[in-house]
Design a protein that fits this description.
single chain, alpha+beta, 6 helices
Length: about 170
């Protein structure tokens, strides 16, 4: 299922469950912030079920995943691949119809690539929640080439060469 199909499916299943300005809305947004503030394996284990809906549709531009059961090992593996990863959510805007847009910056220190050096990226996430305030749709928009791919051997050299040409 692609992003637009997923967005439509989540709207049909969950509607706009969080009232603007409500305690439930605030708590849901705080859970999302806390989940990624310091991204680590123990946080995935402790907070995944409270943060993401069982039927979540997730795309971080690297991979599309449907369902929390499939998301858990992916996030756990991702958290194990980094020495440190912190996401600062700078602001979250809602449209009053159940859509939330989080503007963030991320620092990642990889275990394998670009060892010992921090990489930085900026991005946005489109979020929708279920009636329990758990994320039912999570679509990231960010430049993975700047934050990740340019540090992968061979692939990174190609990306850096292309960037120099333009």
């Amino acid at each position: 299922m692609d992003y637009l199909q997923a967005l439509d499916a989540v709207r049909r299943r969950h509607g706009s469950p969080l009232a603007t300005g409500s305690a439930a809305e605030s708590e849901a947004l705080d859970r999302f912030r806390a989940f990624f503030a310091t991204f680590a394996p123990d946080k995935v284990e402790r907070l995944l079920d409270a943060t993401y809906a069982e039927d979540v549709w997730f795309n971080d531009t690297l991979k599309t995943i449907e369902g929390r059961a499939a998301l858990a090992p992916y996030l756990h593996e991702s958290a194990h691949a980094v020495e440190d990863c912190r996401v600062e959510v700078h602001e979250i805007c809602g449209n009053g119809a159940g859509d939330y847009y989080a503007r963030w910056s991320m620092m990642i220190r990889f275990k394998r690539f670009h060892r010992g050096r921090d990489t930085h990226s900026i991005g946005m996430s489109h979020l929708r929640f279920d009636a329990s305030g758990r994320v039912a749709l999570h679509q990231d928009f960010w430049n993975a080439a700047d934050a990740l791919y340019q540090y992968v051997p061979l692939l990174g050299a190609g990306i850096r060469a292309i960037k120099r040409r333009f």
